Amino acid sequence: MPLPDFPQLVQSVQRNCNIADARHARETTLCNYLLEMREFYRWEHEVPLARPLPRQELGTWISEREALWDGLQADDLEPLCVGERSYGTFDVAAINAALVPQGLVYGAGYGRFGKPHFFLAQLERCEQRQGLTLFVSGCEYARDLTAPPATLLDSAVYLRRDALRRWLWDKIEIWGVRKADGALKSALDSYGFAADAEHAVERMSEHEAETLILHELGEAMAEPLLGSAWRELVASFTGRRAEIVARAVRDNLADCLSTLPRLIERGAAGSIHFYFANFEGVRSKLFPLLAQAYRVWRDSENPAPLRDAAQAGGTHWHEAALRLLRVRESDPAAAEETIAAWSEDPGGLSL
Q1: How far apart are CA 246 and CA 225, in angstroms?
Q2: DSSP bridge partners of 151
Q3: CA–CA separation, 19 vs 130, rounded Å?
Q4: From first to last of its 351 residues, what are the pLDDT tens digits of the chain?
């Protein structure tokens, strides 16, 4: 074991994960909840990705997990002990200073709609990218129901390769029900999925890891453009619709600053197709120019429209984000309702 107290550390992190799930896991739609529970069961029971899940055992496990959560909702998150020191749950930098030399990495932060996320994993590598520390992890020893494959926390990017593989497999499994034409099929064709599915997923996880890193680097580039006022804006929302709009605006800005320019520059066709396989919801509704540019590129292989759309988007989404900040500054009481309305009718916010 990497540490004498490693089993206790895993148990403590997993307990905090369970507490977070007890409070937030059932806030999503029933369909998404069941999909996440299937994936979580697969991780916890180490079921190979390609193996069908046992329905009866899965159903029993879900009932047992929900009963466990019911008993944890009121519990406090517990501190983490590494060696002789005890750390606060969100004291990530100090915890990793102790864990990284042992080949481990820990993550803790808040995701969408204020849900805490925690994980403890094997550290595969640590490097510097654009002034940020990049932690790339493999096998995960503790995690919560939702496992974001990549996150930006303070001055560090966390790329979770195990979570990425599972996320990819779930998307492909859902697509496989109908095998519809579109961006995901084009991406899978680029990776040779029809000939060797498992090998294609491994290749995708390698290449798309870089796409996710590029997005998080874009988030870091957006940070000084928007400042602390942006974090205060998102934290002020009490409902989901306004947060969805705000996150879509910032995601589009990050991708126009970093992800899209780099993918276009590299001519990474498979990754471009995969990017648009995930370009959906409010992000897509706000940015029809980019979807149109993708269709032109797909039909003609001419990257100019994509490049132009990304360049225009860098300016537009910066201004759109500032517009959201001005809405809150001018009328804090009505700001959330005004921003939320753009999820249904983007109006002048779109490009």
Answers
A1: 15
A2: 158
A3: 35
A4: 457 789 999 999 999 999 999 999 888 889 889 999 999 999 999 999 888 899 999 999 999 999 999 999 889 999 999 988 999 999 999 999 999 999 999 999 998 888 999 999 999 999 999 999 999 999 999 999 999 999 999 889 999 999 999 999 888 888 878 888 899 999 999 998 888 888 888 889 999 999 999 999 999 999 999 999 999 999 899 889 999 999 999 999 999 999 999 999 999 999 999 999 999 999 999 999 999 999 999 999 899 999 999 999 999 999 999 999 999 999 888 999 999 999 888 888 998
